[in-house]
Write a structure and sequence with these properties.
The structure holds 2 protein chains of 2 kinds. Chain A is mainly β. Helices cover 0% and strands 52% of the residues of chain A. Chain A is globular. Chain B contains no helices and 11 strands. Classes of the chains: A mainly beta, B mainly beta. Chains A and B meet through strand 5 of A and strand 4, strand 5 and strand 10 of B.
Chain lengths: 111, 114
């Protein structure tokens, strides 16, 4: 079983829509969780960390459900510039010094 | 400006040649990482180093070698033993030794081997 699994999409939504991505992780002892954004042919960039209590950054909300071992990312009022691939990232803590990246979920926002 | 630099951005080599990809960071980060990304695939870890003069194999280390002689630098050599070297190579660094901290990426090097 993979450490991190994501629905690859693609998700195609109109501007202004709300879209949610989920990601599951296999190691219940995982300690750190992140969402990264990767534009086409570019490097991944940190979008936000995910905290146990959930956290929000503008139009973006991240949630962690430890009981079900999943992480979610909610994007409200989608913009054209949100079009990218979103990577779910987990540190399983059993292996020091590394993160595990999901394959990513592709989002396209259309006008 | 602090950040991670990778050079060159594009690299072309003939099959059978070794090639070294550069990665430099001025963030004063202890840990550095090399990933490979193929089209439609996730990031796969090649090697990582948590401290100078020490490094560990990742999931796909065969055909690659690294060195960590300075904190700022973590070059990756793609050897002729790597069967499918054409890919997008990404270098990253992080502040925490335990791997709990987020990683920051360089702009990547696209390697094409023909």
């Amino acid at each position: 079983r993979k450490e991190v699994e994501q629905d690859p999409g693609p998700f195609n939504v109109p501007e202004g829509a709300t879209v949610a991505f989920n990601c599951t992780y296999s190691n219940s002892a995982s300690q750190s969780f992140f969402w990264y954004r990767q534009d086409c042919r570019k490097e991944p960039k940190l979008l936000m960390s995910v905290y146990s209590s959930g956290n929000e950054d503008g139009r973006f909300t991240a949630q962690l459900n430890r009981a079900s071992q999943y992480i979610s990312l909610l994007i409200r009022d989608s913009k054209l510039s949100d079009s990218a691939t979103y990577l779910c990232v987990v540190n399983p803590s059993s292996t020091l010094g590394r993160l595990y990246f999901g394959r990513g979920t592709q989002l396209t926002v259309w006008p | 400006d602090g950040g991670i630099t990778q050079s060159p951005k594009y690299l072309f080599r003939k099959e059978g040649q070794n090639v070294t990809l550069s990665c430099e960071q001025n963030l004063n980060h202890d840990a550095m990482y090399w990933y490979r990304q193929d089209p439609g695939q996730g990031l796969r870890l090649i090697y990582y180093s948590q401290i100078v003069n020490d490094f560990q194999k990742g999931d796909i280390a065969e055909g690659y070698s690294v060195s960590r002689e300075k904190k700022e630098s973590f070059p990756l050599t793609v050897t002729s033993a790597q069967k499918n070297p054409t890919a997008f190579y990404l270098c990253a660094s992080s502040n925490g030794l335990a791997g709990f901290d987020e990683q920051y990426f360089g702009p990547g090097t696209r390697l094409t081997v023909t």
